[in-house]
Amino acid sequence: MNIQDVIREQVTSHPVVLYMKGTPQFPQCGFSATAAQILKACGVNDFYAVNVLENPEIREGIKQFANWPTIPQLYINGQFVGGADIMRELYQSGELQKLLAAGH
Amino acid sequence: MDEVIALMRERLAALAPESLEIEDESAQHAGHEGARGGGGHYRMTIVSPQFAGLNSVARHRAIYQALGDLMGRRIHALSITAFTPEEF
């Protein structure tokens, strides 16, 4: 299985997946910390978090997967949602909560 | 002006921005894991008529595309707020 297939498998087999630097408990980057906090603020505590710092292949592969050059990246039901800025916008407008409710 | 910011402005001219503010926040992130690669942290507010009809994901993609290989090499992290002139 190549790395793109591994990523596809991850995002389709879990309803909510966050690719991040570090873990939700110990984020290693401010943007990743924000992303994890937003999910928790939406009441989603059991999202599937992938620490890209533990896997250089995923760290590079995820950028190609969504054609998105930065981390964190949020996926709901296999669909790319956005990075930390977009998560914040969607959270403030209430749309993220709706997406999560539909996907979770 | 910071060299990377000058390069960013040059590339983003492709989006014909009516307003473009870029702040270098690298100093706030010195020493953390992600800062080791040497790239800077930037925050930008950009206003362009080309964002009309595009959602946030498409606006960010247009910006990343314009920045090209600066992303990841010279820019480690970028916080983006993108408006159309009507929204601004």
Fold and architecture overview:
The complex is a heterodimer of chains A (104) and B (88). Chain A is of the alpha+beta class. Chain A has one domain (3-103): Glutaredoxin. Chain A is 50% helix and 16% strand. Chain A is built from five helices and four strands. Chain A has helices spanning 3-13, 30-41, 56-65, 84-93, 95-103, and strands spanning 16-20, 48-51, 73-76, 79-82. A four-stranded mixed β-sheet of chain A has the order 2-1-3-4, sandwiched between helices. In chain A, helix 1 (3-13) crosses helix 3 (56-65) and helix 2 (30-41) packs parallel to helix 4. Chain A is globular and about 35 Å long. The model of chain A has no long low-confidence stretch (mean pLDDT 96). With 88 residues, chain B is an alpha+beta fold. Chain B has four helices and three strands, in the order αβαβααβ. A three-stranded mixed β-sheet of chain B has the order 1-2-3. The relative contact order of chain B is 0.25. Chain A binds chain B through residues 21-22, 28-31, 53, 63, 67-70, 80-86, 89-90, and chain B through 29, 32-34, 56-57, 60-61, 64, 71-72, 77-81.
Annotation keywords:
heterodimer, A: 104 residues, alpha+beta, Glutaredoxin, 50% helix, B: 88 residues, three-stranded mixed sheet
Structure, briefly:
Chain A is α+β, with helices and mostly antiparallel strands and 104 residues long.
SSE layout and pairings?
The complex is a heterodimer of chains A (about 100) and B (about 90).
Chain A: H1 3-13, E1 16-20, H2 30-41, E2 48-51, H3 56-65, E3 73-76, E4 79-82, H4 84-93, H5 95-103
Helix pairs in contact in A: 1-3, 2-4
Chain B: H1 3-12, E1 19-24, H2 26-29, E2 40-47, H3 56-67, H4 70-73, E3 75-83
Parallel strand pairs in B: 2-3
Antiparallel strand pairs in B: 1-2
